[in-house]
């Protein structure tokens, strides 16, 4: 079978192509002359699969999208508290290059506007680092994120440096306010170098997928940033990433995103997919007209809005009941025709708090009501894709309480997802851990005694 996804991406591009509105960024002459019919899109799944269509090999400068990653690097190099002391987390509602600081703290509003981004840049490596050291650190991290060696586009760099008065003004304002301690001209020069790194949509989608995958590169498996940093970056992107259109973006498109004046948008849906779209003409806010169209289509067609309520929690627990068919040997724990039940709870999918709460509720309801007399409680994790930390804690507590009530608890956990350390507890404080349903039946029924049901496997 041929995957329908590339065909779908091509149709998304064709839908966006006729929109010829907007204009290229005029303040950097190389960008002003960009070929306006370029159009590309890419999706990177969190398992490393990459799809792309259109001009997906064409390079363009990363521009403001670098701000998201340099923020993560600043957090790593200076520590989150030091970064938060210097850079806020509030949307400014202003244009990206506004000379503005928060009242009282004098901090830039957030790391996605230039004042915050220049400050974040100044925190990379160390306050007294050189432009070369910071560029090297940033370029190597961006390259690891993209999965290939990236380069600074010297032509873009020179073009932007030629007319950097506004950014220089921001640099000197930050220095006067005591927010940056290094030479402001150097900080701005380094910031412009970080904006001049060339990427493709495939690079950007892959880089975004690292943010979506808690900081671990889906292809190399390398941890590039701590999970907390990835979450921090995605949060600030969600509220501040689309210039002064961020609020409307979150409500309508609904995934974290960062755009740049070269015409790219990088999007990220945590746990699912990294997204990139590119076309040079910009709207009045500085966001690519066609890339916005593409993101809107993707969000609507594929249900990528962060605020969509998940249906997963409703279908996580399946309950089955089996009846003990007693054996005939005198050693059997059950008398002939004992007729007692075994109740089996199977937990399915990627389980978070809501899923574990449903299991807890099912256990409480069934074991104090219709199946009070159940001879054993079987918890099956065979179809559990993942348990997050809180779900695991809730389920551990459920098991402890079942055991304290004197229940015979059997856990089918072939992959060890429950992380129940049988060596850390005594037998009375531990469920019987098995890998298959057949082993579970043996544990419950004893020799010659089987739990049977009409449902498959029991
Ligand atoms: N180099 C650009 C600037 O600072 C980046 C801006 C952007 O992409 O929004 O002016």
Automatic annotation (TrEMBL):
Keyword set for this entry? Hydrolase
Catalysed reaction(s) here are: L-glutamine + H2O = L-glutamate + NH4(+)
Q: Which domain of life is it from?
A: Eukaryota
GO biological process entries? glutamate biosynthetic process; L-glutamine catabolic process
Instruction: Tell me the enzyme class.
Output: hydrolase
Question: EC no.?
Answer: 3.5.1.2
GO-annotated molecular function? glutaminase activity
Q: Does the keyword Transport apply?
A: no
Keyword Hydrolase: yes or no? Answer: yes
Q: Which family does it belong to?
A: Belongs to the glutaminase family.
Q: What quaternary structure, including any partners, is listed in this protein's UniProt entry? A: Homotetramer.
Protein name per Swiss-Prot or TrEMBL: glutaminase
């Amino acid at each position: 079978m041929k995957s329908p996804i590339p065909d779908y991406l091509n149709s998304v591009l064709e839908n966006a192509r006729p929109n010829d509105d907007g204009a290229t960024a005029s303040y950097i002459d190389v960008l002003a002359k960009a070929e306006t019919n370029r159009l590309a899109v890419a999706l990177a799944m969190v398992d490393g699969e990459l799809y792309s269509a259109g001009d997906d090999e064409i390079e363009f400068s990363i521009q403001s999208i670098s701000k998201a990653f340099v923020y993560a690097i600043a957090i790593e190099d200076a520590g989150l508290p030091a970064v938060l002391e210097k850079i806020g987390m509030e949307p400014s509602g202003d244009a990206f290059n506004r000379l503005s600081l928060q009242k009282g703290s004098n901090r830039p509003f957030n790391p996605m506007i230039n004042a915050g981004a220049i400050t974040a840049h100044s925190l990379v490596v160390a306050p007294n680092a050189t432009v070369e050291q910071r560029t090297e650190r940033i370029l190597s991290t961006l390259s690891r994120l993209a999965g290939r060696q990236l380069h600074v586009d010297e032509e873009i760099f020179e073009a932007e440096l030629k007319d950097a008065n506004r950014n220089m003004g921001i640099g000197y304002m930050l220095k006067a306010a005591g927010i940056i301690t290094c030479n402001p001209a150097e900080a701005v020069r380094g910031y412009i170098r970080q904006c001049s790194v060339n990427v493709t949509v495939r690079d950007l989608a892959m880089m975004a997928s690292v943010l979506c995958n808690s900081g671990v590169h889906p292809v190399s498996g390398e941890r590039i940033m701590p999970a907390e940093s990835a979450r921090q970056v995605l949060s600030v992107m969600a509220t501040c990433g689309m210039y002064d259109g961020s609020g409307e973006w979150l409500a309508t498109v609904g995934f974290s995103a960062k755009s740049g004046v070269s015409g790219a948008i990088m999007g990220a849906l945590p746990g699912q997919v990294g997204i990139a779209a590119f076309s040079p003409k910009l709207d009045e806010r500085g966001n690519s007209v066609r890339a916005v169209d593409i993101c809107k289509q993707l969000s609507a067609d594929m249900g990528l809005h962060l605020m969509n309520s998940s249906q997963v929690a409703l279908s996580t627990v399946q309950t089955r009941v089996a009846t003990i068919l007693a054996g005939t040997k005198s050693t059997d724990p059950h008398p002939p025709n004992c007729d007692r039940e075994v109740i089996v709870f199977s937990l399915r999918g990627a389980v978070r708090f809501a899923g574990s709460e449903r299991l807890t509720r099912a256990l409480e309801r069934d074991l104090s009501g219709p199946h009070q007399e159940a001879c054993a409680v079987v918890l099956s994790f065979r179809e559990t894709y993942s348990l997050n930390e809180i779900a695991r804690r809730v389920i551990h507590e459920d098991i402890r309480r079942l055991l304290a009530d004197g229940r015979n608890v059997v856990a089918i956990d072939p992959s060890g997802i429950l992380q129940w350390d049988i060596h850390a507890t005594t037998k009375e404080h531990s469920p019987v851990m098995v890998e298959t349903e057949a082993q579970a039946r043996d544990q419950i029924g004893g020799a010659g005694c089987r739990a049977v049901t009409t449902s498959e496997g029991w």
